[in-house]
Task: structure prediction
Amino acid sequence: MQGKKILVTGLTGQVGKPVAKILARQNEIWGLARFSDPSKKLELEQAGIRCVAADLVRGDFSAVPTDFDYVLNFAVYRGEAGSFDEDITANAEAAGLLMAHCRKARAFLHCSTTGVYNPQGQKRLKETDDLGDHHKVMLKTYSITKIATEAVVRTMARHLGLPAIIGRLNVPYGDNGGWPLAHLTMMKHGMAIPVHPNKPGLYTMIHEEDIARTIPALLGAATVPARIVNWGHQDTVSVEEWCAYLGELTGLVPKFNYTDQTIESAAADVSQLIALAGPMQVGWKEGLRRMVRTHHPDWLVTA
Result:
C-alpha cells in the first residue's frame, strides 16, 4: 500500500503507534489521539505522521479532513471508574461518529478483540462462535464495550454504505511491548504470573509487524455489511510456554499462580485471515527475542 491518505486513531497506543509508523514509510498518515503527553506527539511527528488532537467522545473532528482513502480505528478507552456508560460512549458511540465523519473513505477497519468470545477452553475460536464476557474478571467493561462497538460499526457500515471490516485481534506484542513484556517484568521482580486453572492458557499472539503487513489485505476485504475476521498468528502458544522461553533468554525463572481471577484461553481460528493475507511471518520466539532485545538488552543471557 503506497501513496494513500490514511487516518489512524489510537495513535499513542500499543498497536496504533507501531502500525502508523510502519505505514508512514510509504503513505500519508494522519493520527488522532488526545496527545496529553507532548513527547509522544513529537516522536510520531518525527516519523512523518501528521498528528491531530481530537475528542472522539464529543465527535469534535473540526481539524480532521474528510478525504481519507482509509481509516484504521485502533482507539480504545477504559475509564478509571469502570463505568459502562462512560466506556460505551467513548468507544462505541465514538466509532459511529468517526465513521460518519469519514464516510467518503474507501474502507474502514475497526480493531476489535478475541476477548469478545465466550471462553471455550483450548478450542480454536471461529468468527461464528458465541460471544461472551471473556475479560470480566480483569476488565469489567472491556468485552461488553467491544461487542457494543462492533454492533455500531456494523450498523454504520450499512447506513453509510461504507465498506468495513472488523478485525478481532488476539494478543498483540512486539518492539512496542505487550502482555509478554508485562510478564517478563513480573518475572524480573519475582512475581507470580496468573494463569487460569483451565490450562494451558492458549493464544495466537501476533507481532506488530504482521499486524501492519496484513492491513492492506484486510482493507481490500472490507464489505457492506461489515466483515468480521480473526486477527492472529497461525500458531498457538501458551502463557506458560512464552514465559518459559523468556526465562531461557534471560535466565529468569517464571512462577505461576493458577487462579480463576484471570482470563481463559482465547486461541483464534485464523483460516479467513490466512486466505486473505497469507501466513504470518514473525514466529513467536523470534518476536519475543526481538522484544527483549529492544526493551532490556542487558537482561539477555542468550542471543
